[in-house]
Design goal:
With 128 residues, this protein is of the alpha+beta class. 30% of the residues lie in helices and 29% in strands.
């Protein structure tokens, strides 16, 4: 399959960003910070940076990581992972107008469930 002219599948990928926050439905989750992990795929045309080798021609993934960590660890608490992931996606799109789309995978690393489970999570995708 060929990609149509002017369309790229270029991505900036961030994997395993960890931050602590107080998100969840249970009172104990709202009172005690717990770890979350975030993976991001940013749809960005990487051609300009590929040609120039200049940071100014791409999205600064350090700035993206800072915004995501601040959103997860921030003062605002969300009952649902879906709401937190949605706000992470919005915050990422606000970092740089060149981000055409973002996919956020958000996992709670120690979910308070009565079964042996490593993580629970959600995936949201947003287009500009």
């Amino acid at each position: 399959m060929t990609t149509p002219p002017g369309v790229t599948d270029d991505r900036i990928e961030l994997r395993g960003l960890r931050a602590v926050g107080t998100h969840g439905v249970l009172v104990e989750e709202q009172d005690r910070a717990q770890p979350f992990e975030v993976d991001l795929d940013l749809a960005v045309d990487l051609r300009p940076a590929g040609v120039s080798d200049a940071l100014a021609d791409t999205v600064d993934y350090g700035a993206v990581a800072d915004v995501v960590a601040a959103t997860v660890s921030g003062a605002r608490s969300f009952a649902l992972l879906e709401a937190l992931a949605w706000h992470v996606a919005d915050a990422v799109l606000d970092v740089d107008h060149r981000i055409r789309a973002v996919t956020v995978v958000l996992r709670k690393l120690r979910p308070p469930l009565a079964v042996d489970i490593e993580t629970v999570g959600v995936r949201v995708a947003r287009l500009r």
